[in-house]
């Protein structure tokens, strides 16, 4: 390995993906996730949801501010939601054919959102209860003109509208 900082076969180039994160305790931060341009998990590079669902513990987030940007390590379990500005959800092959369901979601911070979720299950197994039992902790929710990635552990109540 080159001690002068040359490339490594284990190094992945990262790109920034803009988002606004909401944390337990009320902190809201605008900034960027660092996601891999290439990944072995899927074609087209890593998505923010992939990063959040990949493991437990902390993730780096570059926070924009009045001074120079700074990187903060946030604990995934304390992330309530991330508003994203990319159509990464739409890159899932089944996203366009999944049933779109209107819902009201009450989050642990007291915020209630009227939104849509996509249930990508076979007909007859595409109920909202099936969506709630999905293995991913972080899930896409269509909210207004935005997409939120919501931590299912912070969903207090979930109602079809």
Comma- or semicolon-separated keywords:
globular; single chain; 3-stranded antiparallel sheet; mainly beta; 2 helices; 10 strands; 7% helix; 161 residues; 7-stranded antiparallel sheet
How many beta strands in the DSSP annotation?
10
Low-confidence stretches: none
The biggest sheet, with number of strands, parallel, antiparallel or mixed sense and barrel status, is: 7 strands, antiparallel
- Shape label: globular
Distance between the termini: 57 Å
Biggest sheet, spatial arrangement of strands: 4-3-2-1-5-9-8
Structural class: mainly beta
Relative strand content? 35-45%
Q: What value does the average pLDDT take?
A: 88
- Count of runs of 4 or more consecutive helical residues: 2
Helix content: under 10%
Rg, rounded, reads: 17 Å
Helix-strand string = EEHEEEEEHEEE
Oligomer: single chain
């Amino acid at each position: 390995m080159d001690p002068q900082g040359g490339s490594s076969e284990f190094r992945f180039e990262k790109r920034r993906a803009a988002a606004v994160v909401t944390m337990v305790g009320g902190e809201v931060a605008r900034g960027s996730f660092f996601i891999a341009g290439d990944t072995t998990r899927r074609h087209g590079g890593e998505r923010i949801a992939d990063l959040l669902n990949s493991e437990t513990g902390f993730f780096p987030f570059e926070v924009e501010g009045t001074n120079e940007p700074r990187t903060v390590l946030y604990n995934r379990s304390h992330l309530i939601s991330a508003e994203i500005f990319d159509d990464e959800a739409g890159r899932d092959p089944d996203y366009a054919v999944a049933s779109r369901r209107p819902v009201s979601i009450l989050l642990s911070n007291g915020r209630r959102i009227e939104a849509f979720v996509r249930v990508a299950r076979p007909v007859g197994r595409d109920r909202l209860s099936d969506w709630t039992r999905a293995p991913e902790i972080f899930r896409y929710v269509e909210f207004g003109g935005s997409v939120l990635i919501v931590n299912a552990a912070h969903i207090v109540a979930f109602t079809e509208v």
